[in-house]
Amino acid sequence: MDTTKKTIILFSGDFDRVMAALIIANGAAAMGAWIAMQPGPDPASLLHPVPWLLWLAVTAWIAGFDLLYACQDTEFDRSAGLHSVPARFGNAAALRLARVNHVVTVVLLAATALLAGLGWPFWLGLAAIVALLVYEHSLVRPDDLSRLDVAFFNVNGYVSVIAFVAVLAAVLLPS
């Protein structure tokens, strides 16, 4: 056996923690953007609920679509002894948890809009996001992941662009 070659595997716990950290960090980027847009450096802006709601909303959205994408690796994860949600609990449970995450995302985005005073353009965008998330979940079933790429890549791309345009329009247009 050749002991000079080493392979580092970040699965079965370590990978889960790395993925969680990445998802949380991506959510934090939304919080950072909100804080950066404030008129001046004010640590008190961290006490405002809007950036925290944004952080949680983005984190829930990413966790939801990451669960969808993980379903394609269920059999490999099981054979390799990996402990992903789909491998541990099955694709049906992972898809249900993804739906829960996306419902939480919508609720948090709505709360953000109410507290930030965003007007009709945001609500129109949020309605489109809800429709897209419903469509995304209609594309995948526990026993049929053939449209997973469309659900994961295309739909989430549309969601992110619509969210950006909706917020921008809500900020720039009179309500």
How does this structure look, described?
The structure is a single chain. Helix content is 73%, strand content 0%. It is mainly α. Helix 1 packs antiparallel against helix 2, helix 2 runs antiparallel to helix 5 and helix 5 packs antiparallel against helix 6. It has a single domain, classed as Up-down Bundle (Four Helix Bundle (Hemerythrin (Met), subunit A)), CATH 1.20.120. The radius of gyration is 19 Å and the shape is globular. About 4% of the residues have low confidence. The longest helix is centred in the middle third of the chain and has 26 residues. The N and C termini lie far apart (70 Å). It is built from seven helices and no strands.
Topology:
Blueprint: H1 14-36, H2 49-70, H3 74-79, H4 85-89, H5 91-116, H6 120-139, H7 148-172
Keywords:
175 residues, 0% strand, Four Helix Bundle (Hemerythrin (Met), subunit A), mainly alpha, 73% helix, globular
Mean pLDDT: 88
Number of strands: 0
Structural class of the secondary structure composition? mainly alpha
Whole-angstrom Rg: 19 Å
* Shape summary: globular
* Percent helix range: over 70%
Order of helices and strands: HHHHHHH
Major sheet summary line: none
What is the terminal-to-terminal distance? 70 Å
CATH architecture: Up-down Bundle
Share in β-strands = under 5%
Low-confidence stretches: 6-12
Number of helices: 7
**CATH homologous superfamily designation:** UbiA prenyltransferase
Summarize, please:
The chain has a single domain, classed as UbiA prenyltransferase (Four Helix Bundle (Hemerythrin (Met), subunit A), Up-down Bundle), CATH 1.20.120.
